[in-house]
Amino acid sequence: MQTVWVEKYRPRKLSDVVGQKAIVERLSSYVRTRSMPHMLFAGPAGIGKTTCAISLARELYGQGWRDNLIELNASDERGIDIVRGKIKDFARAATIDQQEFKIIFLDEADSLTSDAQAALRRTMERYTATCRFILSCNYSSKIIEPIQSRCAVFRFKPLLEDDVKEYLTRIASGENLDLRQDGVDAITSIALGDLRKATNILQVAASACDVIDQDAVYESTESMRPSEVDELLKIALKGNFTGARSKLDDLMVRHGLSGEDIVRGIHRAVFDLPLEEQAKIRLVDRVGEAEFRLVSGSSERIQLEALLAHFANEGAAASRKGSR
């Protein structure tokens, strides 16, 4: 079975973490002083929250890091029982190898129920002498205020394109891949700052194609090309609603994309359209409404066709205005 590259190329030291320099510097200072507070890592998926927590434990405890770190995923065990049971038992147990404290890393902590978070805040306060908590979440607003006030908050940002490209090039070199520049650009465009997603896309493309270029990336991931979205919107803006509808059918059948995927692609393309600012504002408002209705369970076909109808109307209005 092929090795999962996400784990194979995961940084082992804090200094190897990609794209989070300011956060790495703060965490490194904790390693030097061998003292740290409870911490809350907040930010989108795939940008280094788990990697930073594990790398911190590695540098604090050396070879014995596994004995002094427990990693739990709150999305699997979200109830109050996990706090009163497994977390509490580990927190009050003595440290290994006479370490100052142990670490409890709670991933996806924003999935914890309110009761579980209320129980957790007391556990964090009571066992500070023997353990530290690192909570990781996508949305810090879902963590109750008493827990946030007990933690040093670290806000992780999506990775820059240059950081993602550098990391992909490093993997390509290590795996002897024929990775072309347009392939790197395509992966970066799809990943949107998510390094885990970028690595997985690269591995999928490498397993399917010997040469990893733009075509290989889009074909192996069944993703919609930005050029296809541009073409769809240009047809609609010309007032050709029937042609835009046919193009939409082609995209949905060929790629098997969900309505939400297509709406997100349209949203990214709106800002590059040759329209006035007020027209873009109206269209973005309609895109947001269509996305909300899709999430609420409305028909994908009806909502997407209604959205294209608005683009056709805006295109027709712009044409009439230009002909005056």
Tell me what the structure shows.
Helix content is 59%, strand content 10%. The model has no long low-confidence stretch (mean pLDDT 85).
Describe what is shown at a glance:
The chain is an alpha/beta fold. It has 15 helices and 7 strands.
Topology:
Layout: H1 5-8, H2 21-33, E1 38-42, H3 49-61, E2 69-73, H4 80-92, E3 102-107, H5 114-126, E4 131-137, H6 145-149, E5 151-155, H7 161-175, E6 178-179, H8 181-191, H9 195-208, E7 211-212, H10 214-221, H11 226-237, H12 241-255, H13 259-270, H14 277-295, H15 300-323
Parallel strand pairs: 1-4, 1-5, 2-3, 3-4, 6-7
Low-pLDDT stretches: none
The assigned CATH architecture of the largest domain is: 3-Layer(aba) Sandwich
Helix content: 55-70%
Mean pLDDT: 85
- The secondary-structure class comes to alpha/beta
Tell me, what is the CATH class of the largest domain?
Alpha Beta
Radius of gyration: 24 Å
Question: How much beta, percentage-wise?
Answer: 5-15%
Biggest sheet: strand arrangement: 2-3-4-1-5
The CATH superfamily of the largest domain appears as: P-loop containing nucleotide triphosphate hydrolases
**Total count of domains:** 3
Given the C-alpha coordinates, what overall shape results?
Answer: elongated
What series of H and E elements makes up the topology? HHEHEHEHEHEHEHHEHHHHHH
CATH fold title of the largest domain: Rossmann fold
DSSP, total strands: 7
Total count of helical runs of at least 4 residues: 15
Largest sheet: 5 strands, parallel
Q: Give the N-to-C terminal Cα separation.
A: 66 Å
